[in-house]
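S1.2 Input.
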Amino acid sequence: MHKKTTWRRVVILLAVSIPSALLLNGCMVGPDFQPPRANVPPAWEGVPQTPTGQPSVTTSQPAELTHWWQKFNDPQLTALVEQAVNANLDLQLAETRLRQACAARGVVAGGLWPAVNSSATYQRTHSTGATRAESVAHDQDLFQTGLDAVWELDIFGGIRRNVESANANIQAAQAGIRDAQVSLVAEVALNYVQLRGFQQQMVIAQNNLKAQQHTAEITRQRFAAGFVSALDVANAAAQVATTASQIPVLETSARQAIYALSVLLAQPPAALLQELSGTQPLPVTPPEVPVGLLRICCGAGRISTRPKRKSTSLPLRSASPRPTSFPSSR
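S1.3 Output.
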């Protein structure tokens, strides 16, 4: 009779505890994350309408924007971008943060499973006892082993909320890598195009300087012959001096662009001087420019897909489900 009563109590306890656990399982602590809404106007203010001189043409194949810098068909630019992606310190730091977030997620998720601790010790003692007849030595071996298992049930969902937060941290780290890659490639391409632009401006300035020096010399000869006044000579000399003063500024700007490229490639500032100092033409604009390459995203949905927006909004998602305190389950 006593045995039947005991089994009945066990069945009743299981019948009450299992539904209660399932009910509490759906009542996790911490709020659910709600993404912030961006109130963005549908179009730019002050722009009457979209230019229709060359309308966009729909293609059957999606545009390849992953390696957009290759559209310029500039081997030097492609090489610089590849070197920067492999060596940039900011990008390596972003990858390290991703590894850190993955490791932290593993630590947090470990709380969902049982924890088993084991130990083992061995001790050997040697003692000597003396009697009247002889001296006797005793050796003793002592072995000890232990096993401890602990499993804390996540009834109120605190650990699962922390796992959600860790997953959001991983997504934020991944978005940070993409953000760093986009920023890095854009900076390399911008500095490279500026460098080639400064070099072309120097070529034009030097050609103008030669032409203006020749004009100034002719003006002085005409002044000596009495055909022009001294004002014309002064104007010609001033034009030569103005053009000559622009060349050092352009040389300094070109050198600064080379220094910036060297730093982006994690090299000393002057490492690329010999390689990039030679004058080269500007990268040629591709005949067909993909819409996503130059399009300025105006809609809220498009802005939300930017790596920069994701890398800044995902930390908010990480902090949202994280509980500040846990209710007692005892």
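S1.4 Remarks. The chain has one domain: 76-283+297-319.
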